[in-house]
Specification:
Blueprint (H helix, E strand, L loop, with lengths): L1 H9 L12 H6 L11 H12 L21 H13 L9 H16 L7 E5 L2 H17 L3 H4 L8 E6 L4 H9 L7 E4 L9 H13 L3 E8 L11 H11 L2 E5 L24 E5 L11 E5 L2 H8 L32 H12 L1 H23 L4 E3 L7 E6 L2 H6 L4 H19 L5 E5 L2 E7 L7 H25 L1
Parallel strand pairs: 2-3, 2-4, 4-5, 5-6
Antiparallel strand pairs: 1-7, 6-7, 8-9, 9-11, 10-11
The structure holds pyridoxal-5'-phosphate.
């Protein structure tokens, strides 16, 4: 099984990035609960035949559709030993929790947080954003909110994020009981960063109308275009207005490891809470999200509860309090820290940082190639590792007498699907200022300039044939 996985990773370029699941494979896995045992070898063979070839393909260097990491062989081996150990990191006095504390310590140092800051592994940034919002809620409402819940009739608490913020932020406000309408989406400037004048105006308006601003969420690396909000500017406003300052740095925060990009994250060290993923730019296998909170005591008060079966002591297995289960909603937890610890120790943080820099250089190479090609058009500035562009079809749109915008959008959406189905590359689409764009997020350490060339060549090829076909049929 190990050999097969090493072969898979080593020869990944020979495979299509993604391929449609044949009906036969889907059918083969629809069976009744197996009451009887089977040979491990035969189950492994079923995995090789029906599962391995049909995953989304984020190990592949041509995968650029969404912000997803590529993993490493070291991470895979760490997952193997971790599964063998089968540690439950909810609590107890055990060395695996010391490793989680060690990673938290590294992150505290990396982001310039004080020693009272606490960190906890979670599934991903969606959960880490929720943790940030919940600790902010405790800061605003006191610990009593855990019993009473938020009462919107009593206090109209509101928060702020950029219009380009990830959807998990509005979801976090829904789950935390504030409702997503309490989140004010602040317009972006021409670089797709939160417009801080608009933020100040919104806070002022809200206060005038009897709302209580309590939280501002900055984004370090926006999901659509990779924009970094002015974190220092937001920190100033948060300090002046006495707001909790949370940063969603899902992928962007780890650019702190890249000396050429780190200065652009200035202000991140002033966040009250920070959410990010090791499984994106950190190349740690899924899943490995992380929440870091400046005020560790407040973090603990937000989640810790006492129950006789989770009693603490200063001897035997109940020692070592506080436990990770005191810092989030999870009790049973896997040893996510181990694959992260292995990744940092084996590769070193400089090398991870260099891979991050390289994906940003590739994005600049892609931008230049697009700008030099009259058939392609850039749709957003390239600040980090994400490139939004499209195949130009506006002239054809007029000729075919379809509404220009939707025609160009539907052709580009079609091109994206054709490229995915070809297996050459995996881009995705998003809306940039209301218009559809093809989006390439370069996250995988395996991606090289030839993968960028292959994606762009495929877009042009499918674009031309698509437009020619539409002209003929109209
Ligand atoms: C990926 C991403 C998230 C969500 O993180 P998950 O790990 O997928 O839960 C949140 N915000 C941004 C900016 C992201 O890129």
């Amino acid at each position: 099984m190990l050999d097969d996985m090493f072969d898979y990773i080593e020869n990944i370029r020979e495979r299509p990035v993604w391929q449609p699941i044949p009906e036969i494979a889907r059918k083969a896995t629809r069976e009744k609960l197996p009451h009887q045992p089977s040979d491990l070898a035969s189950v492994h063979q079923a995995f090789m035949d029906t599962i391995l070839p049909y995953s989304a393909g984020n190990v592949h260097p041509g995968f650029m559709g969404w912000v997803q990491g590529g993993g490493t062989p070291v991470g895979m081996l760490a997952e193997m030993v971790s599964a063998g150990l089968n540690a439950n990191l909810g609590g107890r006095d055990q060395m695996p929790i010391e490793i989680e504390r060690q990673v938290a310590g590294w992150m505290r140092d990396l982001f310039g947080f004080p020693k009272e800051a606490t960190g906890v592994f979670v599934t991903g940034t969606s959960m880490a954003n929720l943790i940030g919002v919940l600790v902010a809620r405790t800061a605003a409402c006191g610990i009593a909110v855990r019993r009473t819940g938020v009462n919107p009739q009593e206090r109209r608490l509101v928060s702020y994020a950029s219009a380009g913020a990830h959807s998990s932020i509005s979801q976090a406000l829904e789950i935390a009981g504030f409702g997503s309408t309490s989140l004010r989406l602040i317009p972006m400037n021409e670089r797709f960063e939160m417009d801080l004048c608009a933020l100040e105006r919104a806070i002022e308006n809200d206060r005038r109308e009897g709302f209580e601003p309590f939280l501002v969420l900055g984004t370090a690396g926006s999901v659509d275009v990779g924009a970094i909000d002015d974190l220092s500017g937001i920190a100033d406003i948060a300090a002046r207005e006495e707001l909790w300052f949370h940063v969603d740095g899902a992928f962007g925060a780890l650019a702190m490891l890249a000396s050429d990009i780190a200065p652009r994250l200035a202000g991140i060290e002033r966040a009250d809470s920070l959410a990010f993923d090791f499984h994106k730019w950190g190349q740690v296998p899924y899943d490995a999200g992380f929440a870091l909170v400046r005020d560790g005591a407040l973090h603990r008060r937000t989640f810790a509860s006492s129950s006789p079966y989770l009693a603490r002591a200063n001897r035997a297995m109940n020692a070592g309090s506080p436990w990770p289960c005191d810092f989030g909603p999870d009790l049973s937890r896997s040893f996510r820290a181990l694959k992260t610890w292995f990744t940092f120790k084996v590769y070193g943080s400089d090398r991870i940082g260099a891979a991050i820099s390289r994906t940003c250089s590739l994005a600049q190479y892609m931008r230049q190639t697009i700008e030099a090609n009259p058939e392609l058009e850039l749709r957003a500035p390239v600040a980090l590792n994400i490139v939004c562009f499209r195949f130009r079809v506006d002239d054809g749109g007029e000729a075919i007498a379809l509404p220009g915008a939707s025609y160009s959008d539907s052709v580009n959406s079609e091109i994206c699907a054709l490229v995915q189905e070809s297996g050459i590359a995996a881009p995705s689409t998003t809306l940039i200022r209301g218009r559809l764009a093809i989006r390439a997020a370069i996250v995988n350490h395996r991606t090289a300039s030839r993968d960028i060339d292959a994606l762009l060549a495929a877009v042009v090829q499918f674009g031309r044939s698509r437009v020619a076909l539409l002209r003929k049929t109209s």
